[in-house]
Amino acid sequence: MSHFLNDDQKAIRDVAAKFAVNELMPIANEIDASESTPDWVVKRCAELGFYGIYIAEEYGGIGAGLVTACVVLEEIAKASPAFAGLLSVQMILCPETVNVLGTPEQKARLLPKSASGERLMAYSQTEPAGVGNIAYHQTKLTPDGNGYRLDGHKLFCTQGAAKTYLVMPRTKRDGVDGYGCVIVEAEDEGFQVQKYEEKLGWRGTNTGPIAFNNVHIAPDDVLGDLLTGNADHAPANQASFLGHAATSLGCVEGLFDLTVTQVKERQLYGAPMWKLSPITDRLAQIWTKIEACRAMLYNAARQIDEGTLALPLGSACKAYIGDTAFDCCSQLLQMWGGSGIMNSTGVNRYFRDARAKMVAEGSTEIHHAVIAQAALGFTGLLSSSDSN
Ligand SMILES: Cc1cc2nc3c(=O)[nH]c(=O)nc-3n(C[C@H](O)[C@H](O)[C@H](O)COP(=O)(O)OP(=O)(O)OC[C@H]3O[C@@H](n4cnc5c(N)ncnc54)[C@H](O)[C@@H]3O)c2cc1C
Description:
Number of domains: 3
Structural class: alpha+beta
Strand content: 5-15%
CATH superfamily of the largest domain: Butyryl-CoA Dehydrogenase, subunit A, domain 3
CATH topology of the largest domain: Butyryl-CoA Dehydrogenase, subunit A, domain 3
Number of strands: 11
Helix content: 40-55%
Order of helices and strands: HHHHHEEEEEEEEEHHEEHHHHH
Shape: globular
Bound molecules: flavin-adenine dinucleotide
CATH architecture of the largest domain: Up-down Bundle
Distance between the termini: 29 Å
């Protein structure tokens, strides 16, 4: 893929690859086993400038665009698909939501601190009624004195080291119902992180339920229009789906590379394992699928950078690359035999991370519903922003 990248993108990719191989890979199994990411990893990503890659220069980032962001996420996911998923939320989804919805003052308040890693952000939409079933969501914003009051609770909020939360509540103005987006700070009275879940995959990301009990929301903590803030940041969701797809791609590439080494070294029936034609045939098919996914991903990312993306392509990448990565990881794991099932080899986390990625940031079925709506020219049940 190198020939598509300019010199700046190649330089950032090399920095990300070096970080992934030398610093992240040695602790990736520990992140998975302990369900926690060491603070120094977050600080190191800040030093390397990763959090500001998709933030404009005027707000403290480097404004390098989505292709560059995806290149970095792909490299990092080869070592730790779990950490790459968290990085995608904090590098793309949250800052871009602020960028799309925010006033210049809100951007100046939030984005420089996000770019520097000083105050990373989290994104919170999902509720027990289902992520896209927003008419049944219970978290509500109610007018109160000189602002609003936020009450309710959300599920599965991936936080890492976040201190600022972008929360989607039900809203009302002049008797009209809506669904908006507000800013909540970790220090706000009435805000509570309830617990961190233990997960099958995508571990070490501090994902869990959060609650709001009479949290004061000032008028300048409402992002975008009170009634349509959620729907209006669909472009941020599309960019984020591609970031997430990049982490699925890096996930299958990481396991592919480890498996190639394994089949070259492992002796079966007195010969290297690669002499078995079912193995080489399967490896060739997986290699081809990886290349196809990469072409699809970077074609879509380039369209976003150029402002020409056809809306369901973000969903198509998220669903197709996510499903393909899981299918390929399952086949690659099989080549390890019993060793792949044992945690000590550190390879089954790729399979588990690929599986979690089929649900996180919109399940495959939800994305298929979005794509089908676009293909059929039908709107009404789902919008592309209903999938986080
Ligand atoms: C590791 C992880 C991290 C996450 N982090 C965050 C986060 O940071 N912020 C956040 O807000 N959420 C987060 N989520 C939530 C995630 O986005 C949702 O779990 C996911 O979108 C699925 O939604 P749901 O759980 O509400 O499933 P449900 O909507 O309850 O779906 C149940 C089943 O029905 C299917 N289904 C739902 N709608 C349709 C449809 N229209 N057509 C066909 N089938 C359908 C689903 O695919 C699924 O199989 C995270 C989830 C995970 C697993």
